[in-house]
């Protein structure tokens, strides 16, 4: 049977709701407000570009986590105002075997993610490990935000494409 097909043109964002929740716990600093605004706008930017990333609610923090379809790892996007840089990381909270298998294929991943320079961080003595890359840019300047959003989205999509497929094929868990 025939049925109408609706497309969402506009929907409410979570910025005001997140402010209200956060201010109930404590007053937000200027930096926290900037972080919340940054991630809210990033989410809107990525959604408008029809990203393949699984976007979630924005919070007033310096990172934004994105699921890549498994319970052993996820992407973490970081805005570091002190170092004036952005980072995209494959974060593995509790699986050194997964990190070791990925590290064995380091050359393949680095070739596929070129020109990004990957830093492989096993983090000895901790449960977590990560693979990250970074981009130097003035993150506190609103004029740069669209460039920041573009780099974060494109890099996260590349990480998702390269790492998620390989992790699904592995039988580490």
Helices and strands, with pairings:
Blueprint: H1 15-25, H2 30-48, E1 63-67, E2 74-80, E3 85-92, H3 96-104, H4 106-112, E4 119-121, E5 129-136, H5 145-169
Antiparallel strand pairs: 1-2, 2-3, 3-5, 4-5
Word description of this protein:
There is one protein chain. It is built from five helices and five strands. It is an alpha+beta fold and 173 residues long. α2 (30-48) packs across α5. It is globular. The model has no long low-confidence stretch (mean pLDDT 89).
The main pleated sheet reads as: 5 strands, antiparallel
SS-based class: alpha+beta
Which overall shape is indicated by the principal axes computed on the Cα atoms? globular
In round numbers, the mean pLDDT is 89
Measured between the Cα atoms of the first and last residue, the distance is 45 Å
How would you spell out the order of helices and strands? HHEEEHHEEH
The helix content is 40-55%
Give unreliable regions as ranges: none
The radius of gyration over CA amounts to: 18 Å
Query: What's the number of helices?
Result: 5
Strand content: 15-25%
Physical arrangement of strands within the biggest beta sheet: 1-2-3-5-4
Total strand segments: 5
Quick structural summary:
The chain is an alpha+beta fold. Helices cover 41% and strands 18% of the residues. A hairpin with a 4-residue loop joins β2 and β3 (85-92).
Keywords:
single chain; 173 residues; alpha+beta; five-stranded antiparallel sheet; 18% strand; globular
């Amino acid at each position: 049977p025939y049925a109408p097909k609706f497309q969402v043109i506009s929907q409410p964002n979570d910025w005001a709701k997140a402010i209200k929740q956060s201010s109930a716990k404590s007053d937000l600093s200027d930096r926290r407000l900037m972080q919340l605004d940054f991630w809210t706008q990033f989410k809107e930017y990525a959604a408008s570009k029809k990203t393949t990333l699984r976007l979630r609610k924005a919070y007033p923090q310096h990172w934004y986590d994105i699921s890549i379809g498994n319970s052993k790892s996820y992407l973490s996007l970081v805005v570091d105002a002190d170092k004036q840089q952005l980072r995209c990381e494959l974060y593995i909270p509790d699986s050194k075997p997964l990190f070791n298998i990925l590290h064995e294929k380091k050359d393949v991943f680095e070739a596929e993610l070129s020109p990004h320079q990957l830093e492989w961080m096993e983090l000895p003595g901790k449960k977590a490990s990560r693979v990250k890359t970074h981009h130097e840019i003035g993150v506190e300047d609103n004029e740069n935000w669209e460039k920041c959003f573009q780099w974060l989205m494109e890099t996260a999509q590349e990480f998702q494409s390269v790492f998620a497929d390989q992790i699904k094929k592995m039988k580490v868990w």
